[in-house]
């Protein structure tokens, strides 16, 4: 066999090895394009991160300002309790209505969590229908119903008292109103005699 005929397969083999070995390499143009795309994505992510950081800083500042206002309001209200706790009753009834229980639950929660040691008095009232003795007893039954509910909601029994004013004319909301018109008079109001700390 002569050398030129042996050289052909050797050159062909070397060419194949070179081609196969080069197939794992990326062209510079493709590499540069991929790097440019990655850098563009990286820049977009950095821009979003900067925008998010700025938004978070703004929210922190806004929250700090709101908390400062709340702290000021709390300081101004120190020693004061503002809870609307009133129950109204149907005519000739001392049964608590479901509509009033949420306000009583809120009151019990506020007193238990923020003002333990408070002393409350529940004042019971009626409208002017019926005799004064009957109304005094009905007003007491209404005050007792609210008192018992507050105790069942977690207030200590010795911290809630109940008293009746019956149909007392100087305490009527709508003077002389009875039956359908007298709902405002048929009530039990919760009064703070002492506010606990």
Provide a descriptive summary of the structure in words.
The protein is 54% helix and 13% strand. The chain has 4 helices and 4 strands, in the order ααβαβαββ. It has a 4-stranded mixed beta sheet. α3 (98-114) crosses α4 (132-152). The termini are far apart.
Q: What's the domain count? A: 2
The CATH homologous superfamily of the largest domain is named: OmpA-like domain
For the termini, the CA-CA separation is 112 Å
**DSSP helix count?**
4
Class from secondary-structure proportions:
alpha+beta
Question: Mean pLDDT, rounded to whole units?
Answer: 81
Which architecture of the largest domain would the CATH scheme give at its second level?
2-Layer Sandwich
Q: Which parts are unreliable, with pLDDT below 50 for 5 consecutive residues or more?
A: none
| CATH fold label of the largest domain | 60s Ribosomal Protein L30, Chain: A
Strand order of the largest sheet: 1-4-2-3
**Topology, number of strands:** 4
Strand content: 5-15%
Rg, please?
41 Å
- What general outline do the C-alpha atoms trace? rod-shaped
- The H/E string reads HHEHEHEE
State the helicity in percent bands.
40-55%
CATH class designation of the largest domain: Alpha Beta
List the helices and strands and how they pair.
Elements: H1 3-22, H2 28-76, E1 86-88, H3 98-114, E2 119-125, H4 132-152, E3 160-166, E4 187-194
Parallel strand pairs: 2-3
Antiparallel strand pairs: 1-4, 2-4
Helix pairs in contact: 3-4
């Amino acid at each position: 066999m002569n050398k030129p005929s042996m050289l052909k397969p050797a050159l062909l083999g070397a060419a194949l090895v070179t081609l196969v070995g080069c197939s794992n390499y990326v062209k510079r143009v493709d590499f540069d394009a991929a790097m440019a795309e990655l850098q563009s994505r990286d820049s977009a992510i950095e821009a979003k991160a900067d925008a998010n950081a700025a938004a978070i800083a703004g929210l922190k500042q806004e929250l700090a300002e709101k908390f400062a206002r709340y702290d000021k309001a709390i300081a101004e209200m120190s020693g004061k309790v503002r809870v609307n706790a009133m129950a109204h009753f149907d005519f000739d009834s001392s049964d608590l209505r479901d509509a009033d229980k949420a306000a009583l639950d809120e009151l019990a929660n506020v007193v238990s969590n923020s003002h333990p040691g408070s002393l409350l008095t529940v004042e019971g009232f009626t409208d002017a229908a019926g005799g004064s003795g009957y109304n005094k007893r009905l007003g007491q039954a209404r005050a007792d119903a609210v008192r018992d509910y507050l105790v069942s909601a977690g207030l200590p029994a010795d911290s809630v008292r109940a008293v009746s004013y019956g149909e007392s004319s100087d305490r009527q909301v709508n003077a002389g109103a009875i039956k359908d018109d007298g709902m405002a008079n048929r009530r039990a109001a919760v009064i703070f005699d002492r506010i606990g700390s």
